[in-house]
Predict the 3D structure of the following.
Amino acid sequence: VAAPYPAKDDFLSCLTRSVPPKLLFAKSSPAYGSLWSSTVRNIKFLSDKTVRPLYIITPMEPCHVQSTVACGRRHGMRLRVRSGGHDYEGLSYRSDKPEPFAVVDLSKMRQVRIDGKQATAWVDSGAQLGEIYYAVSKATPKLGFPAGVCATIGVGGHFSGGGFGMMLRKYGTAADNVIDAKVVDANGKLLDRKAMGEDYFWAIRGGGGSSFGIVVSWQIKLVPVAPTVTVFQIHRGVQDGAIDLVAKWQQIAPSLPEDLMIRIMAMGQDVLFEALYLGGCKDLVPLMNARFPELGMMQAMCNEMSWIESVPYIPLGKTGTVKDLLNRTSNIRAFGKYKSDYVRDPIPKAVWEKIFTCLIKPGAGVMIMDPYGGKISSVPEDATPFPHRQGMLFNIQYVNYWFGEGAGALPTQWSRDMYAFMEPYVTKNPRQAYVNYRDMDLGVNQVVGGVSSYASGKVWGEKYFKGNFERLARIKAKVDPEDYFRNEQSIPPLFKY
Ligand code: FDA
């Protein structure tokens, strides 16, 4: 006998059959608003105009993620996945155009399991980088991990795009140090490296988040760190010859021994030279005197500490403590616009002079420059999707931020003008950019015939991935031919051979 009323069958009722209801949040749930905004790191997307998800699912186990994908496929509900929410364009929790979608928020899946003997760890995507650094050094202070500088960054997005920090010259990107992973694919299957195969495994280590499924955890190779490291932070003004120093830095920093990373932050007429040396002051001072005497680095400027102490010290200075690495509440209160470039040939001094004039224009932001060379540059360009390798001198990140809605016009314009000004001095054909510094000005996908078109993806995709973009698109066609996992800058499927 047929039931008088058909059982309700929609996305939410499908989910409630396999995911505990306390992990599901509809727009009408009282906790929805605070949960959605909990890791919105670019405050401009807190606006009422932002297209928000219909549902948020907070899985606690891989099987919850599998059920969410299965129900999403059955009921035509697209998913976006959020680990740490640091995406500069907010693509993990908002859609640029109105469309129904749900967010899989991995913040409840954040275990870090260390195997000190093997020097490996399994880390869940919802962990933040600070939680890895903390757990690794608690287990064994001789080990560390090379990833980003800001402790609240989520593992899921960061590893998916490469991920680099102060040890990039010694150990490469975070993704270079991933040795296995568990991913829920577009069919809701949970696959490890063996089951997914080497092409799929290649794609998830740097091909950008959200295109190939939901990575729930990663196995990483931990790296040895010296018992004592040294940090210095030296400010130089344009009036004290900072432009000469920057012009020299770009030639020296990429060829220094790989234990030494000196990055630059240029803001207004001030330049901060910030360094991490994987060793003690007594070796660093003669090295600096021999290779970069113009900077005037002296013993009194050395801050010796353990590697784990250097991790909060770099972004927070003397006030940063190791316990801060576990703090999941971010203090970012800024609206932001971010762009990136890569430099292969030294920029002439006369151009640096012009750059510093741009840095005092109305709405000017900050230029953060990370030198390459060493390990990050020695990995072959096609070994992972992250292609910015041999011969690259440095990466530039143009960071611009403002406070208060409506104050963004000048800073946004400055970023675009600065980017236009820099064109002759940076990489060309393609003009390379770092996928983890997401920038939708580079282009967005067009959906044609139900899938993101390869032609539209190529516009932004070759900037992030160079020749690796085509291989990524072919892998996408194999693992997600219907383009279920998609967003404005996801890898489109390429079917033709
Ligand atoms: P978020 O959750 O927003 O995800 C980013 C993208 O990955 C989205 O498309 C999302 O859908 C996808 N994704 C997330 N989890 C996934 C999963 N489990 N499986 C599949 N796809 C997934 N970068 C760097 O290299 N070095 C640095 O030092 C810094 N510093 C820094 C500081 C600050 C304050 C910010 C805001 C950002 C950075 N970044 C950075 C950039 C950062 O690496 C980048 O934004 C990462 O993608 C963030 O990862 P989250 O998981 O936090 O982001």
Notes: The chain has a mean pLDDT of 96.
